[in-house]
TrEMBL record:
InterPro entries: Class-I_Fumarase/Tartrate_DH (IPR051208), Fe-S_hydro-lyase_TtdA-typ_cat (IPR004646). The lineage of its organism: Bacteria, Bacteria division WOR-3. It comes from the Bacteria. Belongs to the class-I fumarase family. Signal peptide: none annotated. One of its GO terms (molecular function) is metal ion binding. Keywords: 4Fe-4S, Iron, Iron-sulfur, Lyase, Metal-binding. Its EC number is 4.2.1.2. The keyword 4Fe-4S applies. Residues 11-277 form the Fe-S hydro-lyase tartrate dehydratase alpha-type catalytic domain. This is Fumarate hydratase.
Length: 279
């Protein structure tokens, strides 16, 4: 069995935390540029240009894209034939601690949700772990800001609501969110599973690149339809009016119980931060 040194994981996670906060994805940059061409509002066009300028400043000067550097959400894919020296969960949290400290990233995590004080190093991380064949470790760090997370929602719908009920819920959630999640947004939708798993699906959906459609043609069409409906709401960039309210909509699904129909919406702000490394 292959063993990965403890410090390798720490350093990898630290770099991912900093890179995710400094460097916006190429897919987002292209979506901004395409958005400028499609946007009908002059104010909206100007905002999109400013977002491009902000991304360039963050990249050049290695400063955070946003003052809210987010909760460190980690998607961990662990090969069956690899082990992490010293324990992978501890190594990931030490990596988050190092990244947020060395990178001068804002620390936002309270040690207790009601009575706690700031942990001072942005730990502990939220870690979603899956097992996979092979001897590799795949780590994705997706810092999640509070503003967009607060606009997310899980709804236990009735099976009879069907896909039209899902569409209405997603569009209504975006409409109620308005300018709060710093549009243009990326919308993750989870359908199926259970109460807690559907929220994971919605967040996992946000890891896809702009334009990356669901492999099922049915859900791919729903994604495109939802994007059009959302961009017809008139919220626009930063909520100041226009067509480019969302950059994309992604759907992830899972089998469900015959009596339940869970649906979740997880909204990302325009920076849509996530970086991946394979060790």
């Amino acid at each position: 069995m292959r063993e990965v040194p403890y410090q390798t994981i720490v350093d990898t996670v630290a770099k991912l935390c900093m890179d995710a906060n400094y460097f916006i994805g190429d897919d987002i940059i292209q979506a901004f540029k395409q958005g400028i061409e499609k946007e009908e509002s002059e104010t909206g066009k100007d905002i999109l240009r400013q977002l491009l300028e902000n991304a360039e400043i963050a990249k050049t000067e290695k400063v955070p894209l946003c003052q809210d550097c987010g909760f460190a959400v980690v998607f961990l894919e662990l090969g069956n034939d690899v082990r992490a020296e010293g324990g992978i969960i501890k190594a990931i949290n030490d990596g988050v601690r190092k990244g947020y400290t060395d990178g001068y990233l804002r620390k936002s995590i309270l040690s207790d949700p009601v009575k706690g004080k700031n942990t001072g190093d942005n730990t502990p991380a939220i870690i979603h772990t899956t097992l996979a064949p092979g001897d590799k470790i795949k780590i994705t760090v997706a810092p999640k800001g509070g503003g967009s997370e607060n606009m997310s929602e899980v709804k236990m719908m009735k099976p009879a609501d069907g896909i039209e009920g899902v569409k209405n819920f997603v569009v209504d959630r975006v409409l109620r969110s308005s300018s709060n999640p710093c549009p243009p947004i990326v919308v993750g939708v989870g359908i199926g599973g259970t109460f807690e798993y559907v929220a994971f699906l919605a967040k996992k959906a946000l890891l896809r690149n702009i334009g990356d459609r669901n492999r099922d043609p049915f859900y791919a069409d729903v994604e495109k339809e939802l994007l059009e409906k959302i961009n017809n709401l008139g919220i626009g960039p930063q909520g100041l009016g226009g067509r480019i309210t969302a950059l994309d909509v992604f759907i992830e699904t899972h089998p469900r119980h015959i009596a339940s129909f869970p649906v979740a919406v997880n909204i990302n702000c325009h920076v849509a931060r996530h970086k991946t490394a394979i060790i």
